[in-house]
Each structure stands twice: as C-alpha cells, then as structure tokens.
Amino acid sequence: MKVLITGATGLVGSEITALCHAQGIDVNYLTTSKKKIESKKNYHGFYWNPDSGEIDLNCFDGVSAIVNLAGASISKRWTPEYKKVILSSRINTLKTLHKGLKSCNPEQIESFVSASAIGIYPNSLTEFYEEDETAIDDSFLGEVVAAWEKEIDTFKTFGFPVAKVRIGLVMSDDGGALPEMAKPIKFYVGSAFGSGEQWQSWVHITDLARIFLFAIEHRLAGIYNGVGPNPVTNSKLVKEIALVLKKPLFLPNVPRFAMKALLGEMSYILFASQRVSSKKIEEEGFVFQYMNVCRALESIYGEHDAKETTNTVYS
C-alpha cells in the first residue's frame, strides 16, 4: 500500500507518516520546498506549487490513498493579507490535487481523507455538536472551513470515498497550540482565558494520526470529528497542564480585551467554545488510546520530563 500525503512534514503529517511506516505503508509526499524532497525506499518527495497549479504527476504512481493536510497556520495574526493566505492555501492545494488526479488515473484511488476543522461549529457554551450540524460559525474561521469543505466535496465526482476529519485542539509537545499554552505556565504566569468556561475539544496527536489511517483502511466517507471523547473547559485544561508540569496557578484569568489588543482578530480562537462529539468515529469501531485529558498530558509531558532527567543523569 502507498499513501500520498500533502503537508507530510508538518506536525500532523509527520505523525501520520511515522504511523504509516510502522505499519509497512509507503509514503509519497508533496512539498512546496525543493530542499525538503527526499527519496528513500518508503518515502518519496515530489514538488508542487499550488499557487500556480504546478504538480509533479509522478507523485500519484502506485498510490491507492490520499491524505490532504495542506494549509497555512491559523496561529498567526490575521491581517487582511494573511487571511487571504489562510484561505487560498487550502483551496489552491485542493484544486491542484484535483487537476492532477484528472490527468492521471483516479480509478487507482481507494480513499481520500482530508483535514478540516471544528472551527466550523458555532461558538456555544451549551451545544454538543455532532457531524450533522448544519449551522456555521459566523467568524472568519467558520467561513474558511465552510469554503474548505466545499472544495473537498469536489473530489466526490471521482467516485472514491471522500472523508473529512474535523480536527480539534491537537495535543503534542512538538508544535501546535499546546506548547504555547504550557509556556506561560512553566514560567509561573499561566492562567485561563476569559471566563475559562469555553469548551475545548482536544485530541492526542497519536489518536489523530490513527483516525486518518483508520479512515483510509475502512474507506470511510463523510464527516468525522477528529476529537477525543471528553472535551474540557479552558479552565480545566489549564489546571491539568499546570498539574502535570507541577507549577502553581495564582494569576487571574486573562481578559478578552487584553488578548484582542495583543493578537487582534486571531484572539477569537482562544475564546471560541466548541464542545464536539467523537461518537460517530467510535461507532465505526475506532478505539481511542487517550480517553481523558489527564492521561494525554501525562503521556506528553511525563515522557518529556523523563527524557530530560535521563539526559541530565547520563550526560
């Protein structure tokens, strides 16, 4: 089996690639940086430029599944220019992939799985969202995800199963939001945001990678939430991070206006509340390794602390 991955060198893509290799699955990947092109027995890179529609069609050779993760980070200040980058980076990659597939043999593809985001769900402290929710958040992020998913749906014309994984807060110490949340706590200046009551639907990066592979192996189609079974409030998450890091919390919650002044419109993602269900993927037979946030954080920072202790003792 061979999988083509866009965004393979990013946080989630690297984890999926490692999982593929652990299961004997070869990986082709697309990159916009020629410096990142490698050619190994089970790992081959190919150049593309989605902004110009350029793609090396050799990337599809022997591929039976595609994982799309490409898209610019939303964790940068949302200037008018960068907003365009966030949207175009998602739409243009899909258009270029679609055009490339039309030029090859799409009949060889048995599964197409694309990243999406839970940011499409409306901001709410009370709702518990499942995949059949039709309302869209009235924010820039809601607008982006809606356009993103509409473009993903164009792949249905090929006839193979198309799945969308709506990703929540990814738990990893190697990137994403968690290290940024942990940093002030490590320096004794951590606290919850706003009321702290906003829901955060999280997923351990190992489970997220497993969801993508599960979707491929079972040829799933439709929308699936890429979140763990037990969402937590922001206050709970901050407390649990502090607990596993063995750091005290004594500062008042960070007011919304302060973060708005610091980060601009992008601060919205710190205060948005989306309590999201993982029931649908579980009903397909997926079993989470990390069911609660305490265990997830311990697996990340416990292992990290153990490595640091080992390095100190034996260096």
How would you describe this protein?
- The chain contains ten helices and twelve strands.
- It is of the alpha/beta class and 315 residues long.
- The chain has one domain (2-235, 262-304): Rossmann fold.
- The chain is globular and about 60 Å long.
- The termini are far apart.
Q: Quick gist of this model?
A:
It comes from Aggregatimonas sangjinii. With 315 residues, the protein is of the alpha/beta class. It contains 10 helices and 12 strands.
Terminal-residue CA separation:
42 Å
> What is the C-alpha radius of gyration, as a whole number of Å?
20 Å
**Total domain units:** 1
Strand order of the largest sheet: 4-3-2-1-5-6-7-11
Average pLDDT reading: 94
Count of DSSP H/I helices: 10
What general outline do the C-alpha atoms trace? globular
Q: Estimate what percentage of residues fall within beta strands.
A: 15-25%
CATH architecture: 3-Layer(aba) Sandwich
Write the CATH fold name. Rossmann fold
Write the H/E string, N to C.
Answer: EHEEEEHEHEEHEEHEEHHHHH
Total strands: the figure is 12
Please give the oligomerization state of what you see. single chain
Q: Structural class of the secondary elements? A: alpha/beta
Biggest sheet statistics? 8 strands, mixed
The portion of residues assigned to helices is: 25-40%
Low-confidence stretches: 304-315
Protein name: TIGR01777 family protein
Family: Belongs to the NAD(P)-dependent epimerase/dehydratase family. SDR39U1 subfamily.
Domain DUF1731: 254-300
Organism: Aggregatimonas sangjinii
